Amino acid sequence: MVVLTLTWALLGLLLGLAGYVLLPWILAFLGGVELRDRVGRYFIKQMQTVVGDSTLVAREQGGVDLAPVSFDPEFSADRVTVGGETGHLSDDLNLKSRLAGKGFGLALESHPVYISPLFAEFADRASDALHDDRLALTDGGARLDFEIAPDPIVPELRGAHRLLDGDARRRYGVLAQSWAEKSQEKFGNRVSVGQTLLLIGAFVAGSGMAFLVLKYGGDAGGGGVEVPIQIAGGLR
Amino acid sequence: MTDRRTQLRIGAAILATIGILAGFGAFAWYGWGPIAAAAFGGALVLGGTLPPVTILMLRDGLPLKGVLGVGLAIAAQVAFGRAALVRRDDGEYEWTALREDGSGRYFARLADGREVPIDAEPGEWYRFGFGDLAITEQKTRTNLDEYRVVATPADSDQPTDERAGVPVKPPQVEQGGIPVSLATVGRRVRGSASSELVRRGRDKALNDEGGMQALSPLWTMAFATVLLLVGFAMTAGVMLI
């Protein structure tokens, strides 16, 4: 009886858990675009509540991936793991902002910088203009104007790195740390072999000194001259 | 917001769901008694309220939050069907449904009611969480004036300037777009993706694992002196007992 009651309870629990997702989905499919929008936004808000601070990363091989980020104070950047590889994202362009009230930004898998769709479009159109000789790049600082579409487009986010000033990669911080640690392996030991021998030698020397003092120096206390005395029993 | 027909469909779906669940409860009562039915009903309510309450209570302290977050993003994408991730002109992001008007043009409607037209074909959208995702940015004076070329003095292709021996065409709008100054963009991106991360990684490694951690000669001599005295005292103590 108890087992059957527990079975019914388990069935109710599973149906309840499934209902958390299935019921809104059913309403979304039946309710048209307005309800789809409300249900989707509800799940996005729940997602951001769970993740806290996140990024949508443009993968090097195409596509995007959602990943939680956490601020790493030692690098002054966000730590993020994408495809199993940990690296950092820095907000050099001041483009990280918020989604559903929580920290959010678009980023690149390849480079350690937050980007935006507009900057990705800048990179794309500037490259085209350069290719078509509509952009004159000289050391003298020629006129460098180009044109973007009047309406919002869906740019290729991966190409946004073409606009960046430097060429540091997302994993360079972690790699530099790893390599520097390896370079210090020989110096990483707090006590070297020579220091260890010196410390052992000090202990042995102390013990030896004590031994010598007590073995050979213990009878010498008091000083003075020893005078042998012989007591005779008497002469008859 | 929704028409009468849609409201009826939603009402029917809710009634059908309640009916199915009530049927489960009645079946449990009929076959195994009221305790089984009560256990089913209680667990049903618990199961339905557990995820949102847990998320509300623990927030980003939940274990496996990356997996849960992706799961919820997939749930959202399935609900949206086709979605748009829009960066508004004030910098905030909105993840919303991608809509299509009667003429086949796509747009996203922001929370404040503004509509953002999206000039893209379905082939340009990203695939994410079993759905399409159009990632774009609103374009208004608020976020574009910073980069816009203010003066466009000529429509001529003739060079009007020469810099470092290179003839430079005047800025012009050739495709009805928005002229942007790369110099302004260049100033904004200056110093980005620099080697700063490399320096910080190296510094952290040297601080944590570097040669500076080795025992200094002064401390070595101090420890040696202490060990010498300890060795002397221990040996003397053993020999005197």
Written account of the structure:
The complex is a heterodimer of chains A (236) and B (241). Chain A is α+β, with helices and mostly antiparallel strands and 236 residues long. Chain A is built from 4 helices and 8 strands, in the order H-E-E-E-E-E-E-E-H-E-H-H. In chain A, strands 1, 2, 3, 4, 5, 6 and 7 form a 7-stranded mixed beta sheet that branches. In chain A, a hairpin with a 4-residue loop joins strand 2 (64-72) and strand 3 (77-82). Residues 138-142 of chain A have low confidence and may be disordered. Chain B has helices at residues 4-32, 34-58, 65-80, 141-144, 182-189, 196-209, 217-240, and strands at 82-87, 93-100, 106-109, 115-118, 126-128, 131-137, 161-163, 166-168, 178-181. Chains A and B meet through helix 1, strand 1, strand 2, strand 5 and helix 2 of A and helix 1, helix 2, helix 3, strand 1 and strand 2 of B. Strand 8 (145-148) of chain A pairs antiparallel with strand 9 of chain B, so a sheet runs across the interface.
Features:
heterodimer; A: 236 residues; alpha+beta; 4 helices; 18% strand; B: 241 residues; 6-stranded mixed beta sheet; 9 strands; 50% helix; flat
Give a brief description.
The complex is a heterodimer of chains A (236) and B (241). With 236 residues, chain A is α+β, with helices and mostly antiparallel strands. Helices cover 43% and strands 18% of the residues of chain A.
Strand content of chain A: 15-25%
From the alpha-carbon coordinates, what is the Rg of chain A to the nearest angstrom? 39 Å
The general outline of chain B is flat
Helical amount among residues of chain A, as a percent range?
Answer: 40-55%
In the predicted model, the low-confidence regions of chain A spanning at least 5 consecutive residues are 138-142
| Protein structure class of chain A | alpha+beta
- Provide a count of the helices of chain B: 7
Largest protein interface?
A-B, 144 and 145 residues
Beta-strand proportion of chain B: 15-25%
Mean pLDDT of chain A: 86
The sequence of SSEs of chain B as H and E is: HHHEEEEEEHEEEHHH
> What is the rounded distance between the termini of chain A?
121 Å
Cα radius of gyration of chain B in angstroms: 35 Å
Main sheet of chain B: which strands, in order across? 4-3-2-1-6-5
**How does the overall form of chain A come out from the CA principal axes?**
elongated
Instruction: Let me know the largest β-sheet of chain B.
Output: 6 strands, mixed
Report the structural category of chain B: alpha+beta
